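Q: I have 332 residues here and want to know how they pack in 3D. Can you give me a structure?
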Amino acid sequence: MTMETATERHHGDLRVFAYRMLGSLLEAERLVEQTFSLATLQLRTLDATDFVRTMLYRILAKSCLGVLDGQSRRTLPFLSHSPADPVEPPATSSDSAWIEPFPDELYPEATYEGVSVYGAREMISLPFIAALQFCPPPERAVIVLRDTMGWKLDEVADVLGVSSSEVDGMLGRARSVMARHYHAGLGRREPPAAPYATALLMQYLYPWETGNLDGLMSRLTGEVTLQVPPSPSWYKGSAAVRQYLASRAFGSGARGRWRLLPRRANGQIAFGTYERDDTGLEYVAHSIQVLTFEEGLVSEIIWFANRSLFPAFKLRSRVIVQGRMAPRDERE
């Protein structure tokens, strides 16, 4: 097996492993690329498939643990703060890192033989990823390899360079942490079925693009929550969410201010959100929204203001306003 073949075969699973460890898609991508570079330096031609896999995960696990050493826990605002007052400006935080969304298109079909403890969609859900971050990093690596990928204890021990009994002990501690912090009901929420999903996403998209706040609120549950990382502020209930949106996203000139392009993230409906620029000719990348639905209404919006995520979702940084032309020098 050449390194190119190993890259093709293992890239997706390695990326998901690193994402579960770090809560960051961008950091996971960086470490996976680094892993293949380091592996190439060690061996030019790899003959034993099992050895290749173990070596790659050994390198990546070590890199993840190194990054996590001394790093503050990635989380979501609702897990770290009380609901905010929408009358007050959103809080800012210069040192908090937040979980990032993960495009469904990057989630690979399982290439391992073990049995997972959790469901496929559940294991990539934002509540599950957030709960994993409460596990100390070594225990996190154990539960990810064992309970999400189905690896045997001795295989996990080989990757981490410890004994099987140590792995067993770490697994027990990690499962105790997950029992305290993971709410399975949240992680197992199903997205709308495909035929119905198209109608629901259009009913959500249209009020945004037309600046119709009343129309948008009619598509939200009464207990809807809105999280707006990187701010630690979050809002609970339709009244609070409405007040926040009215003062920031749906103020004067809201009609035509936003454009939303549908995507999927973490097993749920998502949108790439664009904001119209000052020229009026283009929409520029603004944020990724991930939605959760309950009985046809949106019960949760997580609004990730992180433009650097757009390439991973196959979204352009700029989109021309429909019916308008870009300046000549931009078209040539």
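Q: Anything worth noting?
A: Residues 325-332 have pLDDT under 50 and may be disordered. The first strand starts at residue 220 and ends at 227.
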